[in-house]
Design goal:
two-stranded antiparallel sheet
């Protein structure tokens, strides 16, 4: 595991102006966004000092993980936009399939026809009201994602993430649905169950604003929209910015970014659930987001 501030593949290719976690020069430019992302303070507190003040599990790894940029940039170098209208139309054509896959990734044993029944207001026997409510929340998040795309170019930001997360989280019964850096219900980061009894605990809530600002500064400087979007999804999932619903929220924000730039959305087929979970576990264990981002890029398909 790498300590805070460094990492494998740091700023090798495809990212401009990035430096060690929690510090460094400001971006040379800021991309158009639905809302201006938070900016790092003029003097950013040292990560080591912050982690000593608020002890938490990821103190053993990077506070802002650095993927292997050269490897990832090569994967997107040939991807070209084919139009926002086309991307949205293709998403809508497979929305029920996408929501079915999302439900299966959450462990809900729906079939795609059953998902279509729910989307038309029907009821499916053999499933709990809570499961139906979560599917309804995913549909509302999907609708909001499309509204963001209709409004113009989308870039990762707390505002976009918070708004989409609210739709995902409403049925989850959380004691707080706010971005963890904005709430006072629970400073201790949520735990994620890994293999063999391992658990990953996310950063203390009081550290998340610094992690978010530093991460957004990096992501804003990635040249390719598909790599920006997938990096956000992996970054947001790793940091668990909310008490629950992080993976779904990260993916909907990712797809808003992709489609608003004229690229197709990314869907994770439910048959790849085990491979997806392996990529997640890899990032939690190591603080290296490369496997998670690469997995998402592998699912990009603008032809079929």
């Amino acid at each position: 595991m790498s300590k805070t501030g460094g990492g494998r593949g740091t700023n090798q290719h495809g990212i401009k102006g990035a430096s060690a976690a929690g510090g460094g020069s400001a971006p040379k430019h800021q991309r158009t966004s639905a809302a201006a992302p938070p900016q790092l303070a003029e003097t950013v507190p040292d990560w080591e000092s912050l982690l000593k003040e608020y002890p938490t599990f990821p103190s053993a790894v990077q506070a802002v993980p650095e993927p292997a940029w050269s490897d990832l940039s090569e994967r997107v170098s040939d991807l070209q936009p084919k139009g926002v209208d086309r991307a949205v139309a293709r998403y809508l054509a497979r929305e029920s399939k996408s929501l079915h896959a999302d439900a299966r990734l959450e462990g809900f044993a729906y079939t795609e026809p059953e998902i279509r029944t729910l989307l038309t207001g029907g009821h499916v026997a053999g499933h709990t009201a809570g499961e139906e409510a979560q599917v309804a929340g995913m549909k509302q998040a999907s609708d909001l994602m499309l509204r963001f795309v209709e409004d113009g170019v989308v870039e990762p930001s707390q505002r976009v993430s918070d708004d989409i997360h609210l739709k995902v989280a409403m049925p989850l019964g959380l004691k707080s649905m706010a971005f963890r850096g904005n709430q006072r219900e629970q400073y201790e980061g949520p735990q994620v169950q890994l293999d063999r009894g391992e658990r990953y605990r996310a950063l203390d809530a009081r550290l998340t604003p610094y992690a978010l600002a530093a991460g957004l500064q990096r992501i804003a400087e990635i040249d390719h929209p598909v790599l920006r979007g997938t990096t956000w999804a992996a970054f947001a999932t790793y940091h668990q910015f909310y008490l629950d619903g992080n993976k779904r929220t990260g993916r909907y924000v990712m797809n808003a970014v992709l489609m608003s730039h004229g690229y197709d959305s990314i869907m994770i087929p439910d048959r790849l659930k085990a491979e997806y979970e392996d990529a997640l576990v890899s990032s939690y264990r190591s603080g290296d987001l490369t496997d998670h981002i690469a997995f998402l890029l592998d699912q990009y398909d603008d032809e079929s």
